[in-house]
Sequence to fold (85 residues):
Amino acid sequence: MRRGPNGYSETKGQIMNRRIVGYEIVSDRSYSRLENAVNEKIAFGFEPLGAMTKGETHFFQTMVKYEDAGRQDITPKVFAPDGGE
Fold:
């Protein structure tokens, strides 16, 4: 992941500067129940972060909730491929 001149991470031309305000790890022994739990968290404003992982007995998915974009004090910037704004 590249860093732009202001220090924000760049992903496909967009700056990811959202602040995480909630973090949870959802787990279950059953993949289908994990899927239901993840969908329930999504309904409450959480987003999956990274890939689902499988341990010896459980499936895990990290979920995060971001600060409402309308309340950010920072104006997101989009950087041109040549590094300019």
Observations:
- Residues 19-67 form one domain.
